[in-house]
Design goal:
Blueprint (H helix, E strand, L loop, with lengths): L1 E10 L6 H19 L2 E6 L6 E10 L2 H18 L3 E11 L1
Pfam families: DUF503
InterPro entries: DUF503 (IPR007546), TT1725-like_sf (IPR036746)
Protein name: DUF503 domain-containing protein
């Protein structure tokens, strides 16, 4: 079994409320869930208004499939340009 984790950190310029942050997070999460069938959640800095950290997770028996799926998800996030992406990482765990 292979577990893939895509970590994304965004800078939300000009945002001064958790409501605004939640709007951006919901949009990103829905698009990634609907397109790539990944589990996704906010994982850190929940109280910060200007930073959003999300992690998307998928499981498969095949490592190249996991890597490819998460790379496509990352490419979609970059193309959506919903917020400034300041950090991304794809981690593959063999269990």
């Amino acid at each position: 079994m292979v577990i893939g984790i895509l970590t994304l950190e965004f800078r939300l310029h000009g945002n001064d409320s958790l409501k605004g942050k939640r709007r951006v997070a919901l949009s990103l999460k829905q698009k990634l869930r609907n397109t790539f069938n990944v589990a996704i959640s906010e994982i850190a800095r929940q109280d910060a208004h200007d930073t959003l950290v999300l992690a998307a997770v998928t499981v498969s028996p095949d490592a190249p499939r996991v890597q490819g799926l998460l790379q496509k998800a990352l490419n979609k996030v970059v193309a959506m340009d919903a917020a400034e992406l300041v950090y991304d990482d794809i981690e593959i765990i063999q269990v």
